[in-house]
Design brief:
Length: about 250
């Protein structure tokens, strides 16, 4: 590691700022859900943090109906959980859950890579290169929200090359379940740089139709986030809490 890990690197700005929601724009519940999701992705909201409805109503200057719909959408995505007598919380995945999800993600993503038709078309390569330029620019600027979305788009395009709609959808759903752990690796500049270099190497492997290299890169690329999250989890909660939370 080149420096002390800092959660501040993943949360350069405060939580979603109060802002009136105009009825002319997207539905209020979707705007609220997106902003809470971004707070989770950037590490502004921590695992097991309570999401108090009245506080969210005040923050977003709206009513409970919109907030409840937003929390319902986040619950469907696996980012929020509801616990009796405690209300809604940011979902805190245990190390066991993280390992299980990433084990399945690895198998599915490798499956997608195995069935990508080679050679890959020039336009698809150009699209990946454009997304990687956006990612690299965001990494250099410390713009972690753009880092997240450009990285997400890069992998959606990459795995979309396999052409299997069911596989693509399942990969997306599992990736969504672990949005909340991304900021732990992103707190380390070297992790962001490694992701940037992995993307470039993936594009080179696609250009050269080197499937084995692409599979090795795909496997390696998945390691940083779960490793960083599990270390942080065990520092905070200890190593005894190994069973899935209920």
């Amino acid at each position: 590691m080149t420096g002390k890990p800092s959660r501040q690197a993943a949360a350069r700005t405060s939580k979603s700022r109060p802002m009136p929601i105009s009825p002319a724009r997207e539905p209020a519940a979707l705007i609220i859900a997106k902003r809470i999701e971004e707070d989770i992705v950037l590490g502004r909201r921590q695992p097991r943090e309570r999401l108090v409805e009245q506080d969210l109503c005040d923050l977003f200057q709206t009513h409970r109906g919109d907030v409840r719909l937003a929390l319902f959408e986040l619950e469907k995505k696996g980012l929020v959980e509801r616990i009796p007598n405690r209300g809604a919380l940011v979902r805190g995945l245990t190390p066991v859950e993280v390992r299980e999800i990433y084990a399945v993600r690895e198998e599915l993503e490798l499956m997608a890579v195995r069935i990508i038709p080679f050679p890959v078309g020039h336009k698809d390569i150009e699209r990946l290169e454009e997304l990687q330029r956006q990612h690299s620019t965001a990494v250099a600027a410390g713009d972690l929200l753009t880092v997240f979305y450009s990285n997400l788009s890069f992998h959606q395009v990459l795995f979309g090359l396999c052409g299997n709609a069911c596989l693509i959808e399942t990969i997306d759903l599992l990736a969504q379940k672990v949005y909340g752990i991304r900021s732990y690796a992103n707190a380390f500049p070297e992790s962001l740089d490694r992701a940037r270099r992995d993307h470039l190497d993936m594009i080179k492997a696609l250009r050269g139709s080197r499937r084995d290299d692409l599979m090795a890169l795909t496997r390696r690329h998945l390691k940083a986030s779960p490793d960083a999250y599990i270390k942080a989890y065990e520092r905070r909660f200890g190593r005894a809490d190994l069973a899935p939370a209920h």
